[in-house]
Protein: Major facilitator superfamily transporter
Amino acid sequence: MAHTKTTGPTPRLTPISRQSDNTPEVYRSISHVSGHDLQPQALTATVDEDTSEIYDRLSPRRKTIIVAVLSFCAFLSPISSTSILAATPEVAKEYNTTGSVINASNAGYMVFMGLSPIIWGPMSQVFGRWPVIMLTAVLFFLLSLATALAPNLVSFFVFRALSAFEGTAFILLGSACLADIYRPTERGTAMGWFLSGTLIGPAMGPFIGGIIVTYSSWRSIFWLQTALAGTGVLGVFFLVPETAQHKKITELEHLSKKERLRAIMHMISPIRVLKLFRYWNQVLVACASSALLWNMYSLLTPIRYVLNPRFHLDSPLLGGLFYLAPGMGYILGTFMGGRWADRTVRVWVTKRNGVRVPEDRLRSAVPFMGLVMPACVLIYGWTVEMSVGGIPVPVIALFVQGIAQLFSFPSLNTYCLDVMPGQGAEVVAANYFVRYLAGCMGTGVVLPAIQGVGVGWFSTISALFLGASTIGVMAAIRWGESWRKATDAKLEKRLQDDASGGQVLGEPEREQKDTPAKNGVLDDRHPA
Structure:
């Protein structure tokens, strides 16, 4: 099934809640691509994603509260990734090292932000969203406290890296939770609000850090982070329910303990996430997300080093004011970016007489990624390089590119959820794995690169990266569906060959007729 109809009758389904002890009814949908490494299962219901009552389990008010709490939690890890930038000289002085070494800790922070999703994503598919979010929230709180108390440079590095590993789970699982409770035609708007926290955090972090380090110790940055993390723990515990429509752990109740453990280890393996890059559309969208994050961190990281000398500023607080420009852009984009993505989907659904294709959502990001953001980056870089235009020019460029990012990220994130129903957390995990590694590279190379070639040429490289990734997105729009069909056909054949050869995950061989497959699409266990 290559397309999803937005009209039609809906089967009656039983809501799932964290409070219920009953085994939930199995929900199924015919997905665009399958959970090909899952057990073949008998089809019990076909769910129309856009009209299904599973998205009406919670009231609009409750959904809004969930989005607010998850957005707040998603704000925490990104703000920690940049809040220390304004205090880099002070941290280096206390630990008797250089600013470059402290910046290396920021790059390490980004590496662990990238590694985190490929662990927590599969775990949330198996055990549910709430237990994983709650566990990582508590660990993030404890590690933030440990960072504030770090007695030496080694412990500072270790606690920072581990807190990044826990904190990124908020971003990943927040996206998955939204897919659990919002219809595909509504997700863009909700995703825009949710992502505002992840983008406002990096922009506001250096400004807040600048204020703190001007009037207090740099350790106060992490005491504030600890307090915010504690608030997040309380918010998740009291206000966020289990949203998963199905937990894969329930599929294993009939297995022995040994077989169940083996099956769980298979289900939570990071290799499952990395195998998603067999789909070319996923590769290209991940590259586009990487270009956006590379651009964001390569702009934010060197502001104090680039703009303070350019405009003769000598205070962390004054340098931190420049971060307000992209931050305000992110806030303004929050109100429009997600709605623009949903509107684009509805327009194309109308053009196709009610048929929804996931790639249509990507169309909303193309003009902003391909034109607006590269133009802003080039204007910013070359006006600073050539010392023309005064303060307003880089401020306006940073502000407009901030808006453009919020018109791009919701489309890319929501596409990951739409294109592979039932594997939303894993697809987003794969995307975040690549994008945060790109953010790590941007953070790590930006200062040496600017010192080597200048901010103008480095901005040109970033603009070319954005342009090339936009071409990739356009290719995914044009050929994404055919790529999915071709890859699914190969995976279906492999699954049938494996099934004919013996047992899978401890279960007896099933007949081929129990594995629905049509047009290169396999059945999946539950909708995203």
Notes: The first helix runs from residue 60 to 83. The chain has 19 helices and five strands.
